[in-house]
Design brief:
Number of helices: 13
Radius of gyration: 18 Å
Strand content: 15-25%
Number of strands: 8
Largest sheet: 8 strands, mixed
Strand order of the largest sheet: 1-2-4-3-5-6-7-8
Shape: globular
Number of domains: 2
Length: about 300
């Protein structure tokens, strides 16, 4: 396997193409399951509707049972349709449920824009507040979820991998498990080494900046997965089961590997996978079932 070290200066290029599909064999959903698209929730916090897509398992319309729920987050420049259109999550979930690899579950895919799924530094865009205080309660009301921590998971890719980690670390009382794919996490040294135009284009609106033009603001540190793992008590970090998966040719491999090492050094239980592949939909398609299985196992604990 070849490990490619990509220049951070082309990072924007990769993020801008997250929504592009690669050629893959077309699979057909099993009869009965459905994907509801073009849904939205009015948000007072954001002052605009939040679009979302929902996967419902095969027996949802023919039963009265309640289901565990997984929130599945998209990457930078994508939207709430990406995991269905390019990630083929309906087909993956159908197969895994039919094979009894995962329990029947509801999968909710909200549109996170380019918010990084948090509140920005000046409070003008409060996506995290919306998600916690409006969106999750809305989903629990509108769909037959099992509205408890023990039956709620979160996952995502790239920006969404970061989002799944940071939301589960900020709110460990709400999630049983987190499965992060190719999570957009960096060490402080990587952030400081980023070209100024890269930092500004991707992050400054979210994290702010400092007089020396780095991103290492107080808001950045409060929302840095690495800082949280390095400073929070081990018992708190283990309140949510963690699963990390990143390709060996992914330009985010260093941050993901560093996160794994830090978790190991602190003796925090977690699962880490580094498979052959890059920052591509073909990689995430082949990994999503294992991520859902990991989360599904948490629902049985």
């Amino acid at each position: 396997m070849m490990r490619k070290t990509l220049s951070i200066s082309v990072l924007v290029f990769f993020f801008s193409w997250l929504g592009q599909a690669s050629i893959a064999q077309v699979s057909v959903p099993l009869p009965g399951s459905k994907v509801l698209e073009d849904l939205n929730m009015p948000s007072k916090i954001l002052g605009k509707p939040v679009n979302f897509t929902v996967y419902l398992p095969e027996d949802y319309d023919t039963s009265t049972r309640r289901y565990p729920v997984v929130y599945l987050l998209h990457g930078y420049s994508d939207n709430e349709t990406g995991w269905v259109q390019f990630g083929e999550v309906q087909e993956a979930a159908d197969r895994a449920i039919a094979n009894r690899e995962i329990p029947p579950m509801i999968i909710v895919m909200p549109d996170g824009g380019v918010t990084w799924y948090i509140n920005n530094h000046d409070g003008t865009v409060r996506w995290e507040d919306m998600f916690i205080n409006e969106f999750i309660p809305f989903i629990d009301k509108e769909f037959r979820t099992r509205p408890k921590k023990e039956f709620r998971g979160i996952s995502g890719l790239s920006m969404g991998g970061y989002g799944s980690l940071i939301l589960s670390m900020h709110h460990p009382d709400l999630f049983a498990a987190c499965a992060a794919f190719s999570a957009a996490v960096w060490t402080d040294e990587e952030v400081k080494a980023m070209p100024v135009n890269t930092r500004g284009g991707l992050f400054e609106d979210i994290f702010g900046t400092t007089s020396d033009k780095t991103l290492l603001t107080d808001h950045y540190k409060a929302n840095s997965v690495m800082h949280i793992v390095g400073t929070r008590p081990k018992a708190d970090l283990e309140k949510v089961r963690l699963y990390l998966d990143c390709g060996d040719d992914d330009f985010l491999y260093k941050g993901n590997s560093s996160l794994h090492i830090l978790l190991r050094d602190r003796q925090v239980r977690h699962e880490f996978r580094m498979r052959d592949g890059g920052h591509t939909w073909s990689y995430w398609r082949t990994g999503i079932t294992d991520g859902l299985r990991f989360i599904g196992e948490s629902f049985h604990r």
